[in-house]
Amino acid sequence: xxxxxxxxxxxxxxxxxxxxxxxxxxxxxxxxxxxxxxxxxxxxxxxxxxxxxxxxxxxxxxxxxxxxxxxxxxxxxxxxxxxxxxxxxxxxxxxxxxxxxxxxxxxxxxxxxxxxxxxxxxxxxxxxxxxxxxxxxxxxxxxxxxxxxxxxxxxxxxxxxxxxxxxxxxxxxxxxxxxxxxxxxxxxxxxxxxxxxxxxxxxxxxxxxxxxxxxxxxxxxxxxxxxxxxxxxxxxxxxxxxxxxxxxxxxxxxxxxxxxxxxxxxxxxxxxxxxxxxxxxxxxxxxxxxxxxxxxxxxx
Length: 300
Ligand SMILES: [Zn+2]
What we know:
Layout (H helix, E strand, L loop, with lengths): L3 H4 L17 H7 L1 H9 L4 H7 L3 H10 L6 H28 L5 H33 L12 E9 L6 E9 L4 E9 L5 H18 L5 E5 L2 H8 L7 H15 L6 E3 L6 H12 L4 E3 L5 H8 L2
Parallel strand pairs: 1-4, 4-5
Antiparallel strand pairs: 1-2, 2-3, 3-6
Zinc ion (ZN) binds next to loops.
């Protein structure tokens, strides 16, 4: 603003926040009393920043190029804090100039902390997704669906002695990104095939509740897949109800189908199925997958 005044005399060069000093970039971001109050509330020492950089511009450049930083996590956290705080100070200045709204330090600090939290959540989510993708994409013979399609792998872990079973479901897109994982423990399985059909039915109900479309389901139980593709109901009587209900639900999807895959291509659903049965647990996760589930899926 001070520079602009050389060319346009009707522009005031004074800082709009304190109305005392000329409005240079260094003053606005670091020197102004209003800005300093925000840095102080954020527990950031402005004197240290000023002693390490000649000007605000060189300080900002150092955010992207400081070679002395060895602790990347610490550096990322620091950068997020100073970037968001600087942005908030600039917004305060614009609100004063264009809307004649004086800054409120408490509100500013609240807004900064909210934005920092939001950034961290996104970073954690991206880290988990990238870990999950790396582990899922290269260690199984699973084939991705077509672009725009979602694939749901279904598997069941059945215990013939106590008749307990767990089923595992995992939704992935064409990039191999996990869009959801579910496990559920159940009692009273009649036999392995009965449990497999139960798993398929649960998978279809699950994605229907989630309002997903353009889907393909995969199961490694050939009897289940054949019975769904066949025109007749040539299955054990206790499973006929399942088949009718699954076919009915599948018809409600425009192009949903259940395909057979080899066991090795379906390992990724076997893992949560085992976990659900052995730990008698029910779980489902979408955007943020917990570390133990990521570990579980890593070698699938
Ligand atoms: Zn000022």
